[in-house]
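Researcher: We're teaching a course module on how sequence relates to structure. For the next exercise, students receive a sequence and then see the predicted structure as tokens, so they can try to spot secondary structure elements on their own. Here is the exercise chain.
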Amino acid sequence: MVATAEVAVSDRSDLEVIGSLVPRGSRVLDLGCGDGALLQWLQREKGCSGYGVELADANVLQCVQRGVDVVQLDLEEGLALFDDQSFDVVLQIDTLQAIRHTERMLRETARVGRIGIVAFPNFAHWPNRLKVAGGRMPVTRALPYEWHDTPNIRVGTFADFGVLAQRMGLHVTDAFGLHQGRAVRVAPNWRASVAVYRFEQPTTSRSS
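Model: And here is the predicted structure for the students to work with:
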């Protein structure tokens, strides 16, 4: 079961920065969509359509109340429900840190969607480094829980994902950090609290 992840991306300004990466009129699948706020914004501001995938009952109810179509599904079970390239964009916002089979989910994202967009807490952000240097785990806006009650099962960095994407053959089309609603493109690995990547399916799949 995928637990609810720590909330790295929550403010309207954060959602708008990520939403700007989604082409107007796209068919969108939002994995771990939470209360549906991002999908609602994309529908209203960019004429998008699509579905959210969410497990928590309370979040599913909020999606319905927002007018967002939602499928109640445990992401650990995979995306076999969806056909190849059935969406223009697949979002994973605040989900990677709570999923056990990260590579499998990224490959499924590339299979189901033409474009994948992920965002997750960047553990290499400089306040986190200082806290760890002092012998403690960080508690920040992007990582708001204590070590003993966090729903996250892993931490990663902006640089870590770049290495993973290269190894998997994912074609990264944009990568930047996010901090307090602003995009960080200079030294994001230590200046940003959230990592954001936009990618397309593996190069081997695109050439076949």
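Model: If you want an answer key for the exercise: The first strand starts at residue 27 and ends at 31. The radius of gyration is 16 Å.
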